[in-house]
Predict the 3D structure of the following.
Amino acid sequence: MAEAMSHAERLAAAFRGEPTDRVPVALWRHFPGDDRRGDSLAEAHAAFWRRWRFDLLKFTPSAGYYAEDWGYRLSTGYDPYGVARGAPVITSAEAWADLPVLPPDRGFLGEQLLGLRRLRALVGREVPVVQTLFSPLAQAHKLSGGRVLDHLKTHPELVEAGLAAIAETQRAFAVASLDAGADGWFFSVQCACRDMVTWKEYLRFGKPYDLRVLRAAAEAPPALTILHIHGTGTYFRELLDYPVQALNWHDRRVGPSLREARTLTGRCLMGGVDDQGVVNSGSPEAVRAEVADAVSQLNGRSMVVAPGCVIAVGAPDENIEAAVATARGQRESG
């Protein structure tokens, strides 16, 4: 049996595929209202982490934080997952050519860096922290209310100009996040789905710009890199060559399962908890069974028990406790 590890040691070992003293666990959520200011967002994250002592702390700004300095404004009210809708900024294809590159340390982007610095001061180096980044095409989708999916067919060169500006803004923000105290990135790809674009389209309008952001690692190597593959009908297999250490996706609701994914990649797999399932509305017993099943799929090796995306804001404490306690009682086997 491995000796007791720190959160950072446990997570790093799981990411490398090495033995751990127990299975790492991390859950994350939005903090509506608190996510309007960096200091309040940091304090909400710190309180959440102190309550549960996860092995990884994912810094989760508001769902459209990256778009606000381009003029995106949230509507009132949040959904059960703490996400608010907003009015699109870009309504014509011609507007993509005028999208500016933003400085990462000003405006609402700068507020997120202030939040990261505050969070690091609150939790110290006790737990690894990752910044949430979004793929450029996903950002373009938010900025345009989905119109980019039409624009890339009718005005591809204009869309590419906008994506280049978004990618450069996110690249600089990724590097600045490390300077602000993040240990790495949680890179969310949200448009690599068959019902949104063809793979040929993603090869032109998605992947090259994703890699521009992820290759910021060459400038300031992060300790942790996680790819989150969001949505249904995803190009899961096609994204497996991205330069990341760990993968997170809707393994329960969308697939592939953890067991199947292990046949496709040797990277650390993060999942097992249905973000829209029993953790929000079931019993603690159902949560314990779900976590135990996840661990059994991978024999507890090179994995992190985690949700497929944010859990609901109102997820019961007893269910979070059940997930954490069950994971902590599991060790590698086989």
User: Anything to note?
Assistant: The first strand starts at residue 57 and ends at 59.
